[in-house]
Specification:
alpha/beta; Rossmann fold; 5-stranded parallel sheet; 4-stranded mixed sheet; 9 strands; globular
Amino acid sequence: MIVLISGPSGAGKSSVIAGLMAADHRLAFSVSTTTRPPRGQEQDGVDYDFVDGGTFDRLLADGAFVEWAEVHGERYATRHERLAQLESAGSIPLLDIDVQGGVQVIPRYGDSLVSIFLFPPSWAELEQRLRGRGTDDDEVIARRLSGARSEVAEAGHYRYWVVNDDLERAVARLQAILMAEECRRENLGESPLAG
C-alpha cells in the first residue's frame, strides 16, 4: 500500500499528515526532491532533498522519478529510490504530492495506491488560512487561490475526499480510510480460513 495525499496549498496537508503519522507508526514520509531553496529550519534529506536545476535535470534524464511537476516556479519530484527504501524497510510510504504529480502517480500504481484529496472547508477559509501564514504577499496569495481552483477541478482522479474542517476529525477520517483499505479482500490475498 502507498498513501497519496494531495490538496491545495492551505488545505492543511502538513498538519493532517503529522497527525496521521503520529497515530500510525507504520507510515513513513516520502521525502520529495525539489529545486526550491530551503525555508526556515528545513533540513536537506529530512524535509526535502534540495538540488539545483542541473542535478534535477540529470535525475530526470536518468529516469529517477516516479513523477515530477513544476509548481509556483520550482520543480518537485518523487524518486523511485525513496519509495523502494521505505517499502523494503516494511513501512507504508506516505506521499504529499501536488495535484500535478498526483495525477501522474494514480494510474501508475492503480489499486495499490490509496489516493486522498484534502479539501479546505470553504474558499473563504482557504484564503484566511493563506493570509494567516503571514509569509506571502497579496499577489502570491491570489496566485495560490487561482491554483487551488485548478487543483480542486482535478479531485475526481482521487479515490477518497476528506474535508479538513476540524484537524482531529480529518485525521480520524484518514485513519478510517487506511483501516478500510487493509480490509479489502484484494489486500488480504486469500481467505483467512483458506487451507
